[in-house]
Amino acid sequence: MTERLDGPQTPRGDGDVARGASPGPDETPQPPTATHPALEDVATGQDGTTDSTTAAATSAGPPALATGPAAPKAGYSGSGNLGPSPKVAVFFLLPAFVLLGAWMVYPIIFSLVRSLYDAGGGTFVGVDNYAAIFTDSATLTTIRNNLIWVVVAPSLVTVLGLLFAVLTERVRWATAFKLVVFMPMAVSLLASGVIFRLVYEQDPDRGVANAIITSVHDVFASSSGYPGARPRENDQAPAVADKGTVVTRQPVQAGGQVLIPLVGLKTEALPSGAAAAKEASAAPGELSGTVWLDFTPGGGTVNKIDGTEKGMPDVTVEAVAGGAVKATTTTAADGTFHFTGLPAGSYQVRLPQENFAQPFSGATWLGPTLITPAIIGAFIWVWAGFAMVLIAAGLSAIPRDALEAARIDGATEWQVFRRITIPLLSPVLLVVLVTMIINTLKVFDLVFIIAPGSVQPQANVIALEMWRVSFGGGGNQGLGSALAIFLLVLVLPFMAINIRRFRREQA
Amino acid sequence: MRVKTTAVVAGLMLAAAACGGQSNDTGSSPSASAGGSSAPAAKPLEGTTLEVAAKWTGDEQKNFQKVLDAFQEKTGAKVTYASTGEDTGAYLGPRIQGGNPPDVAILPQPGLVQQYADQNALKPLSTEVQAQIDQNYTPYWKELGSAGGQVYGVLVKAAHKSLIWYRQPAFDDAGAQPATTWDDLIGKTAQSLADSGTAPFALCAASGWTLTDLFENVYLSSAGPENYDKLSKHEIPWTDPSVTTALEKIAQIFGKKEFMVGGPSGALQTDFPTCVTQVYGDKKAAMVIEADFVAVSAVQSGAKVGEDAKIMPFPPAGDTPPVVLGGDVAVAMKDSKGAMALLEYLASAEGGSVWAKSPGYLSPNRNVSPDNYPDALTKQLAQTIISAGEAVRYDMSDLAPSAFGGTDGKGEWKHLQDFLRDPKDVKGIQEKLEADAAKAWKK
């Protein structure tokens, strides 16, 4: 609007010569406005034409302007409408109507009708399918998940896009950076899903996410010990598992000896320094024993130290009496340990839990709890670039003088960003946000591919449930249609926002 | 569903099917016409064209094409092959509704026979085809291909689901022996493997159907074939004590985290071919409980079938040694002479023998000689099917409505996965199974 208002002023300001030569410009807009008061657009359009014509053709101006509004008037004989005749209009609109009707309106109406029938399509069931949506706990989970998606994903994508756009504006490598961030858009969602399925693998050797987490973790806490080692599960074993620790079944007197056979570990997993296990030498007043790997490939005697079985070095051993730890020691290379100078009495020998701590293996991304955040992460990876490009385009259209003025007035960069940039960008941000909301409501492929079968129920979203119920085994297209209509109802308000915004921009 | 691939592949297949995945073998048509011109008299179907739709792709498609080529050679008919993708129902449904079904379709589940028969989309088999079935199959299979007293389908390809694959070197290390009873499997074989530091089982719990296969074997052997048939038809509820027994037996594996790679949480993230890799590729586990088609993935992981990759029959958890089969049923969707001729050929010992010479195929046809199979292992499998005779049962989950027995994240798949997550709650799982089963059978 501003350009149009500014427009006519220019010729008026410096076009004294033009006005003198042809007195038209000031009056010429009047006749069309008078004859067609309904069409202001045409009037302003005429205004625009006046600018150029008057500047270029000083003498030929008035006749050209006169024929302009006169010509349509002759062609459409006073209908008051500048457009083509209704017949022609219908002819031109027909293809669009047919396509819209066949591909949009008819399917929607058909789904609506179909949603009122049962699985077979033969029996009218009224709103039963809709009732089923809100009573079935599995479907309620999908609605809850969609809610999480809509709240979290679009705003994160927008915020990240904004950050990238604002930061790259000042970077020398902006184009390269933007290209990299935008790259995921070139990958299909299906392929992105496959990529992230691998990224989120539990095994740090396969999944990048856990590889990073475990490497960082291992810098601060080195894992050692014998994960998975445990006593045999039978009544004769001299040691038993007890809440993660291993304790001797019978109390031992000071001066006695114990055997603690462990299994569940590969021989290769022992440190290279491990020597063949042997029974601890007895000494008076000394509690001693052996911790060893009681497994000989292909046999060996249970609970006895066989020739080839190796001791487990560096295992922490505690002597416990009355619930308190009285002494602590560690095993030697041959698995033997000695407590010297223990007061007489009966003790329980305990191998504390830290000996058997499982190595830290990262987060269970594909488990029931983290699956939705994990998939949202993949979604952000795909769409952040798109948001960034849109916002960057909006950013470059912001009038620099406003920012300059604010800076001259002493605003900090944060204030400029918060009070000037964001308000000026808000139309673009809204576009991105609304587009993303619609995208998240219909999210399907990422969930379908990233979530393993066992956590599909926990990761499920409405669009996926709709497909699964109708085609993917469920075979109930009545319920599927009801879900489709429900999804449509959810999307409609955001569509309306988008359309209203378009209208406002055009106005 | 014999080879249920991962969701990812299913998605890709779906896309491929949507793009019109119709692939006719261009190489075979000239040879067929050339053959036709040389000896027209011997070929009754000269000039007939047929379309057959099945879900096979890649090598399986090539092997099936060999059978089709032999049929073309014999009859002079021209057969084109269309791939349905992984979701046969989604491919055939629109074509049936559009009035343009293929002449012959090969359905991955007998349940679809009933479904399409209800829609009047199938043509009853001609007497010639039925004669072949009577001659070559036990009555159980005839009944399986029937709906409403009419015979519509013939089982053309079988999968043997009562197997445990193991890795011989892991057994050697642990001094473990293949088990002959369930109690041996748990108490001796698995326990000694676990003691040696190798996880006994690699469970493919992210693929729910592997858990239903496990359940079916345990149930068939502990509850017997009669109960198996009743539960298949939902004539006894899932809260039945026989189900409790079977689930408690399964809990002997599920309840011990050292019995599976990665514990329950890891197993639930592992889908089907990955667990085979865990056994033969990564060497993290010793056994995988799945069907004959494990061989494909085992070979891909670098194992030699018969040397380090061996099989043991599923050890019975009761009185019946279980033989559970999966398989594909061929049906006619158009009443054409060519369609019946092709079905007759597929049901015959002749057609089965041609097919049997390709790897990865197992025939349920008792007159296909085991000598036709290319390797000793398949021979052995074919022998068990033939000798089990009447006691063989079809995969229960594939007989159920797919909303219960064949959908990711729903019904039996979901509840058995939940059972793996919490194996103590047998009663609760049974109630949930029953609730979903009741819903699915009501429809």
What is the strand tally of chain A? 9
CATH class of the largest domain in chain A: Mainly Alpha
Global shape of chain B: globular
Shape of chain A: elongated
Strand content of chain A: 5-15%
Give the number of domains of chain A. 3
- What's the helical proportion of residues of chain A? 40-55%
Per the CATH scheme, the topology name of the largest domain in chain B is D-Maltodextrin-Binding Protein, domain 2
The most extensive interface, with participating residues per chain, is: A-B, 44 and 44 residues
Radius of gyration of chain B: 22 Å
Radius of gyration from the alpha-carbon trace of chain A, in angstroms: 39 Å
| Number of helices, where a helix is a run of at least 4 consecutive DSSP H or I residues of chain A | 19
Mind telling me the CATH class of the largest domain in chain B? Alpha Beta
| Averaged pLDDT of chain A | 80
Please estimate the helix content of chain B.
40-55%
Question: How would you describe the overall organization of this protein?
Answer:
The complex is a heterodimer of chains A (507) and B (443). Chain A has helices spanning 2-14, 16-21, 24-27, 30-35, 40-56, 61-75, 86-114, 128-135, 137-168, 174-182, 189-199, 208-220, 371-396, 400-408, 413-441, 445-450, 456-459, 462-470, 477-506, and strands spanning 239-242, 245-248, 252-253, 257-262, 287-293, 316-321, 324-330, 336-339, 346-351. With 507 residues, chain A is α+β, with helices and mostly antiparallel strands. In chain A, strands 1, 2, 3, 6, 7 and 9 form a 6-stranded antiparallel beta sheet that branches. Chain A has a 3-stranded mixed beta sheet with strand order 4-5-8, with no helix packed on it. In chain A, 32% of the residues are buried. The model of chain A is unreliable at 1-78 (pLDDT under 50). Chain B folds into 2 domains: 7-160 and 326-394, Periplasmic binding protein-like II (D-Maltodextrin-Binding Protein, domain 2); 163-322 and 400-442, 3-Layer(aba) Sandwich (D-Maltodextrin-Binding Protein, domain 2). In chain B, a hairpin with a 2-residue loop joins strand 4 and strand 5. With 443 residues, chain B is of the alpha/beta class. The chains are: A alpha+beta (507), B alpha/beta (443). Chain A binds chain B through residues 119-120, 138, 190, 193-194, 197, 201-203, 228, 230, 232-233, 263-267, 269, 295, 297-299, 364, 366-367, 445, 448-449, 452-457, 460, 468, 471-476, and chain B through 7-8, 11-12, 15, 87, 89-90, 115, 172-175, 191, 194-198, 205-208, 258, 262, 265-266, 268-271, 401-403, 406-410, 413-414, 417, 420, 443.
